[in-house]
Structures are given as C-alpha cells and as structure tokens.
Amino acid sequence: MYNQKNQLSIEENYQNGLLPQRNLKDYWYQDSSSRSNLSDFNLSSENRRIITKTSEYKCQLIPLKEFHYTPIIQKTIYQWIKEIGWEFPISSVKTIFTNHIFNYVYVWQDLDGNAIAYSICYFSKNISHIAYVFYNPKLSHNNLPIRLSLQAIIDSHNKNLKYCYLGRFNPETKLGYYKRELPGFEYFKNNSWVKYTV
Asked: Where does residue 165 rank: exposed (0-12), middle (13-18), buried (19+ CB within 10 A)?
C-alpha cells in the first residue's frame, strides 16, 4: 500500500484499482479495491432479504454542498467511532465531509426521524464510490451496514452508471468479506478486475 499524488482523472484512478486517501484529496493508494459491475446487476435472494429486513429505515441522498455538517453531527459520529473501536481521527471525518472529492452523503433515519447512519459517496456521470460509512453501533449486528452499500449499488444502477466502487476487500484476511455477496461483485487483483470465486 502506498500513497501517491496522481495526475490521472478520478475515474481513471478508480479503474486502476486506486482508492482516495482520506486526509488528502489529491492522493491515492493501492489496496485491494472492489466494485460492483453494474452491467452484471442482479439482486440475489439474500440481497432482497436484507432490503426487507431494513425496510423500516429511510434514506436521503444529499449533495454535500447542501449538507450542513454541524458540531452535533461531528460529535455523534465521534461517539459512534469510539464505541465501535475504529481508528478514524475526527479531523479525517471533517475532511471527508467538507474538503474532499466526495460530493454526496446518504443520511439514514429510523422511524422516529433519528439519524442512524451517514454514507459518504462520490458520484460522477459514469461511476460512484461508497467511500465511508458511519452508523449507530447499536445497529452493528443487524442488516443495516450491508444495506448502506447495497442501496448505493441499487441507486447507481438506476442512474445507469457503469460501476459502483466499494472500497477495500481482501479474501485472505476477510476484510470487507460481506461485499462478495453484493451484485456484480469484482475485486482488483494482479492489475486487473476479477470476479470473486470460492
């Protein structure tokens, strides 16, 4: 894994298996990227089960330039990160919300209108990337975390995009292992995109 300042376009970086560095928007790194090939989009019975099990949650996709990133939201996310035990500095959270390539955020709410998750994304006319997700730790062991990625894939397909990038995946360490069940799943291996096989 390495960081590099890259002069290629954002879409070319993703195509080459690179991922954006969270603290510096012009820097990219190589580390087992994955994506949904939307030409191979098909919801499995497991995907549909997850959608059904999370039907009580509602989401809204908001342009980040219209999203008001408040101290209260920052404090909430900080508490979530702390409880889950992630190593993610709050300064990095602020950067990805306010000064990065990412241009949309999904805001998820429960039936009472309480925010339960945020998904930071990049959308262009051809691709998307669900880059970072933050969610209420009380929902860690239900189907919501997977639904966050699944929803981005569904919406990307409905927008007629080519790919929805999903971030890191490593079959050896099981990093992001749930992603292999997502529609059209591929990962970057030996400088090319390949389908996952058991």
From this structure: buried
What is the residue range of 104's domain?
Answer: 56-169
Q: Is the pTM of this model over 0.90?
A: yes
Only one residue has tokens 């030409």, namely 39
The rounded Cα 167 to chain-centroid distance in angstroms is 7
What is the domain-level CATH number for residue 155? Answer: 3.40.630.30
CA distances from 187 to 18, 27, 165 (A): 11, 21, 10
Look at the chain and report how many structural domains it folds into: 1
Residue 1 lies in a domain: no
pLDDT digits (tens, 9 = 90+) for 166-184: 999 988 887 788 999 999 9
The verdict on residue 26 lying in a domain is no
Q: How confident is the model over 115-157, as pLDDT tens digits?
A: 999 999 999 999 999 999 999 999 988 899 999 999 999 999 9
